[in-house]
Amino acid sequence: MDARTTPAAPAAVDPVELLADPYAGYAALREAGPVHRVAGTDGLPAWLVTRYEDVRQALADPRFSLDKANARPGGYRGLALPPALDANLLNMDPPDHTRVRRLVSRAFTPRRVARLRAPVRRTANALLDAMAPLGRSDLIAAYAAPLPITVICELLGVAEEDRPDFRSWTDALVVPDPARPERTREAVGALLAFFARLLARKRAEPADDLLSAMIAVRDEEDREDRLSEDELMSLAFLILFAGYENTVHLIGNATLALLRNPAQAAALRADPDRLGPAVEELARFDGPAPLAIRRFPTEDVTIGGVTVPAGETVLLSLAAAHRDPRRFPDPDRLDLGRDATGHLALGHGIHYCLGAPLARLETEIALGTLLARFPRLELDVPADRLEWRPSMRTRGLLALPVRY
């Protein structure tokens, strides 16, 4: 999102500063007022909601649609994806959302996620084994990125030899280069071809994995509510994209927060049983998504005393909500003893993240294993020299140089 406000808005934020430190910029907006007119992620006008209670209520309000068909004519453009990748839960409202989520939940079970605990731990240790002799590494490239992609491929049933460069594809979608629009088109084409081949292979040779289970649900006979082929491929894409992209940055941002708060990291090493609650606070403190996915009111809606017309683009600022002192006292302080339940990093309402248990599992194991294996882990560059991805859609580091 370009955070330039209209002249009538009470606060203005430099977008470069917002990328470097979103929390100070969002705090200025939050304290100036609950809703602001801004330029959205696609450059078109949008409404930014900044206070916790308003954001939380809007996330669960059925009047806020995720279906782009409810955007006003000439309004939101966003990223154009073909139907085979776009027919996913992030673009659906009930009853389609209810139907698709119910069907995929039959395959994406808590038992299937729980079975990944040992593979996650094994992968984390293998990655740290490779890092250990080096003494210093980029923790994003060597650990935070390969761990989730290995886990999500294991979940979907993608063989190791068939795992292409997902990171380059997701980067091309999340951080498109205006000077090279062909990169985005090439990434979309590569994703379509990859999933088409993968679905065909799983149909021919089903196995005990999530994608085979989803195909079985899709191909059941005599089901009027079954998944369409576009919905099946779009779900596979969403699970890969969200399961990888968000978890990379959750692990990376959490590690940086601990490195900048060594006393908190030491307490966590001393009492690993605190890892579960710690992940909740780390997700609140510096989560991977500054904004929830855009929404479109199906009727005029009043938020914080401001009336937003139907069809307008609404952006819900999770970054601002998570640092709202009305909900979280002393919110700019990392406090692993804080009760951070109620944070919105994984959503709220019917669109609560389907993969939340997996994201928690991966982050807990990734941090616990890292802290145990490298007790002298520290930043290898000054914190103010770290570079963040140039995107308002995600908050994540380009690299995290560490020594140990």
What does this structure look like?
With 404 residues, this protein is of the alpha+beta class. The protein is built from 17 helices and eleven strands. It has helices at residues 15-20, 22-32, 52-60, 83-86, 96-105, 110-114, 117-131, 139-144, 146-156, 166-174, 181-204, 210-219, 229-259, 262-270, 275-285, 318-322, 356-373, and strands spanning 2-5, 35-39, 45-49, 64-65, 136-138, 296-297, 301-303, 306-308, 314-316, 378-379, 401-403. The strands form four sheets. The chain has a four-stranded mixed beta sheet with strand order 1-2-3-9, covered by helices on one side. A hairpin with a 2-residue loop joins β7 (301-303) and β8. α7 (117-131) runs antiparallel to α9 (146-156), α7 (117-131) runs parallel beside α17 and α10 (166-174) crosses α11. The longest helix has 31 residues, at 229-259.
> What profile does the largest beta sheet have?
4 strands, mixed
- Quaternary class: single chain
Total of helices? 17
> Which regions have little confidence, pLDDT < 50, spanning 5+ residues?
1-12
Gyration radius (Cα, Å) is 21 Å
User: What global shape is seen?
Assistant: globular
- Approximately how much beta-strand content do the residues carry? 5-15%
Gap between N and C termini, in Å? Answer: 36 Å
Proportion of residues in helical segments? 40-55%
